[in-house]
Design brief:
Number of domains: 1
CATH superfamily: Glycogen Phosphorylase B
Distance between the termini: 52 Å
Shape: globular
Helix content: 25-40%
Number of helices: 6
Structural class: alpha/beta
Length: 194
């Protein structure tokens, strides 16, 4: 993302709720930071989020009061959704994002909708072949969707889709297969103890 002028582009990433949303969000945040963007993570109060963002370094982190829709907790879900809308609005009033990206899940909708109100470009990333409920709902509202699998594109009602794969953190990059087999005690054809 580039922007004219001296101001650093500011990207808000809604990525909380599960590790499957959070860790790819951290990977994207790392890449955007390396490219000169300011990044804020919007996460849920769940323990997995709170523990994982401790590794986020100097990134700004905002905890939204969001809860997932489970076991017919409609009232709790609706109440937390409205509170998350207000929390996102308050956060974006302090610093307007240039872009809002959701990695899916129940933390994604409020920041995307509020971001649109603030004139931000909006994006979603779907790592799964079959999109989750939140991303299926948000797809028609975002400017572009990024997908982990090409066949996912036909399952989202979105204007523009780009196949990107699923972002992974640097510690999970490719390694030499022979070295990995040796480290795990495996031979070329199977475990060394066979």
């Amino acid at each position: 993302m580039t922007r004219s002028g001296a101001q650093t582009p500011f990207v808000a990433i809604a990525c909380g709720g599960t590790g499957g949303h959070l860790f790819p969000g951290l990977a994207v945040a790392g890449q955007l930071t390396q490219r000169g963007c300011a990044v804020m993570l919007l996460v849920s109060p769940k323990e997995v989020d709170q523990q994982a963002v401790k590794s986020a370094g100097d990134l700004a982190v905002v905890t939204l009061p969001a809860v997932g829709l489970q076991n017919r907790n409609y009232f709790s879900f609706a109440r937390s959704f409205v509170k998350s809308l207000f929390a996102a609005r308050k956060t974006f009033c302090r610093r307007k994002p240039d872009a809002v990206l959701t990695m899916g899940g129940f933390t994604g909708a409020p920041p995307v909708w509020v971001g649109k109100d603030f004139g931000a470009k909006t994006f979603l990333h779907e790592s799964n072949t079959i999109p989750g409920r939140a991303n299926r709902l948000l797809a028609r509202w975002v400017d572009e969707a990024f997908v982990g699998f090409p066949e996912t594109a036909s399952r989202l009602r979105v204007r523009k889709v780009t196949h990107t794969g699923t972002p992974v953190r640097p510690q999970f990059q490719r390694r030499d297969a022979a070295t990995c087999r040796t480290a795990l005690g495996l031979t070329r054809n199977g475990p060394s103890f066979w």
